[in-house]
Each structure stands twice: as C-alpha cells, then as structure tokens.
Amino acid sequence: MKPIHATLERWFPEKRLFLRSDTETRFIRLTSETQLVAWTGSTIVVGWTIVATAILLMDSIGAGNFRAQAERYQWTYEQRLNSLSVDRDSSAAEAASAHARFEVALEQISIMQSELLATEEKRRELETGLEVVQTTLRNTMKAREEARQQVATLTENGENGVANGMPDEAVGTVNLLAEALAETAAERDQIAADAEFALEQAADMQLELRLLQERNDQIFRQLEEAMLVSVEPLDNMFRAAGQNPDSLIEQVRRGYSGTGGPLTPMRFTTSTGEPDPDSERANAILASMDRINLYRLAANKLPLAMPVRSNYRLSSGFGQRWGRLHAGTDFAGPVGTPVYSTADGVVTQAGWLSSYGRLITIRHDFGIETRFAHLNKIDVKVGQRVSRGEKIGDMGNSGRSTGPHLHYEVRVNGNPVNPMTYIRAGQNVF
Questions:
Q1: Are the C-beta atoms of residues 340 and 304 closer than 8 Å to each other?
Q2: Where are the alpha helices (DSSP H) in 256-346?
Q3: pLDDT of residue 374
C-alpha cells in the first residue's frame, strides 16, 4: 500500500482545510485517497453532463432534421398531388373534348350518309333520264328520215300531178303532210335542245358528285386520324393494367349485345353490286367508335381511379415488408378523409374483419376485387351497387394499424396485384 500511497502523495499531496470562527479554529484533513475519490466523482459528473448535453443536442438536431425532412416530403407530396389534380382536370377536359368530337363525328357521318343517299338517287334519275332522252332522240331521228322520204316522194308525185292536172284533193293532202313535217321538225329541234340541256345538267351533277366525294374523303381522313389518336392510348392503358384489350372488348360486348342506333353498319352497293368504298371506310370508323364506346364501359369496370383524392400521402407500397407480403398500397391522411370506389361493382363485405378493421370489399367484372381497410366509417351495405367515384366511407385507424390510413388492395381471381399498376394506367388517359 505504501508505494500506491507514495504515488498518490505525488499527484494528490495531503492538504488541510482550516475553518476559523470567533472562538476556535478547526481543520479538515484531506488525504490523497479522499482527493482521488473527489476528483474521480467530479470527473464522472462532468463527463456525464457533457455526454447528456451532447445527446440532447444531437436529438434536438435530429428531430429538427426529421421535421425538415418530413416537411420536405409533405411539400413533395403536395406538389405531386397538385400535379395529379392538374393532370386529372386536363384529362377530364380532353375526355370532354373527345366526347364532343365524337358527337360531331356522328353528326357528320349522318349528314354524309344522307348526302350519299341523295347523290345516289340523283345519279340514278339522271341515268334514267338520259336513257329516255337518247331513246326519244333516236326515234325522232328515225321519224325525221321517214318524213323526209315521204315528203320527197309526195313532192315528186305532186309536181307530176300538177303537171298532169292533179285534182285539188291531192294538192290539199300534200299541203297537210308538209305542215305535219314542219311540226315534226319543230318537235325534233325541241327534243334536241332538251337533250343538250340534260347533258349539261348531267355534267354539272358529275362535277357536284366529284366535289362531294372529295369533301367526303377529307371528312373520312379526319375521322380516321381522330379514331387512331383516340383508340391507341386506350389500348396502351389496358395493356399497362395487365389486360388483353381484345379479350376485354369481347367480354364487354357479350354483356352489351344490343344492336341498332347510330353505330349500325352502313350498307351501300354500286351498280355492279360491289360494296361501296365509302361505305367500307364509314363502317371501319363506326367500328372504331364502337370500340371506344366498349372501352368506356370497360374503363368504368376496372379500378383505374384513385381511392382518395385529397389530404393524403403514400405511406407504404405493394411488396415484401418485414418478410411478409404487403398486399396493397397505404394512403395516409387525417381521420375522416373521404374514400371513393375505384370502379363500378357490387359490395360483398361491409363490416369488421380481423386485422383489416372496418373493411369494404367490392366485386367488379373480369374477376377483379378491391378492398378498403382500416376505415373509420362505412357508408355502403352488402349487395349495394356502386359506381366509380362514389363515396363509400371515411379513412380511419381501425384494426391492426399504426396510424390513420387507408389500406387499398386489388385482387385478380383472388391473387393480390399492385394497385398502382391500374392507377398509373388510368392516369395516362383519364
């Protein structure tokens, strides 16, 4: 112990602390060991104070960074939401414009169909009139030649009769025939004039028909370009959603098998019995319009819309999370945020279901089902039919949930798929 005490004496020499009063003086002896303990305790307290202060400062700085990062995320989501809102409004305006163009196209086709019918009727009338005029002209020319021969014969006989002292009755007959010949010649001239007028009218009608055909061809080109621009994005949208457009159209057509109306195929034939080329082009345009109409019906049956429209952020996506499949997409937001149906369908579940909490399940066509979980309020009942964009409940925090949010699932034939695949596909068009 002596070597240790000697070492401590070198670093912490023994000290005495004197305390003087009016009557006496006392002292406190501070040995080396006491000073070592006091120094060690002071060092520990100072070190703990420094570490605790550093931890508090780091935590404060970290909290500030987290808040700043959260504000940046919130600002980013708000910007994205505003962008989506602008895109949605723009898509809605484009859809309204496309619908207006569709109505104008139908009206133009109806007008064009009426003009084609009128032109075809006029052409047939002209062909019939020309045939009648040509027949009458041929008969008149033949009658004129016969009359000329008769006049020549009668004139020759009349001259011979006068020379030979023909009776007055024969002379009267000759004069009567001459008058009939003059009338026939006048009728011939009138018929020739009418035939010339008919030929001029036919030429005018041919010019009018050619101009009408050029106008119709221009209308057809515009309609064909409009159909091409309208149909291709829809094809791409359904392919992006993992659907076969042709199979989808066939299923919708089986569900809506009515016929008639403005989309009924046009049937015209030429004089040879062959199909009219304009009719074939018009029928192709009508087929494209019918396809767009069926696409519109199919789009209402696919979950292409957003389940929430405001005051939300994407908090968790589809995929593996903590070693398990997260079968949907989470939209975080305040309690009470409205939740909307993403497609037409029938409600098959509207109540509490285990960890889902308050759950709404909607069955759609094509084997598709959507689920809306952790709701605070349910506004629909089992068996109720809902439309795309119809409010069905409010966002909440029921079931196994760490905060207010909507858990949204899309299942195809019972298998979960990424809901954003459908939402992004819809945002590219609508």
A1: no
A2: 277-301
A3: 96
Q: Two tokens at 309?
A: 């429209």
401 CB contacts (<8 Å, ≥6 apart)? 357, 374, 407
Mean pLDDT across 131-149: 70
Whose CA is closest to 312, among 324, 330, 285, 287?
A: 330
Burial class for 97, CB neighbours closer than 10 Å (0-12, 13-18, 19+) = exposed
Q: Quick check: helix, strand or coil at residue 231?
A: helix
Q: Tell me, what's the pLDDT at 154? A: 61
Spatial contact of 318 and 327, defined as CB atoms under 8 Å apart: yes
Polymer length of the chain: 430
Q: Which residues pair with 385 in a beta bridge?
A: 346
Q: What would the pLDDT profile of 173-200 be if each residue is shown by its tens digit?
A: 666 666 766 677 677 677 777 767 777 7
Give the CB-side neighbour count of residue 319, counting CA atoms within 13 A: 5
> String of b and e for 8-26 (b: at least 16 CB within 10 Å)?
beeebeeeeeeeeeeeeee
pLDDT band at 375 (very low <50, low <70, confident <90, very high): very high
Q: Which amino acid appears at position 299 of this protein?
A: A
Domain 305-317+326-427 annotated CATH 2.70.70.10: yes
Widest pairwise Cα distance in the chain: 205
Q: What percent of the chain is predicted at pLDDT more than 90? A: 21
Predicted pLDDT at 162 = 46
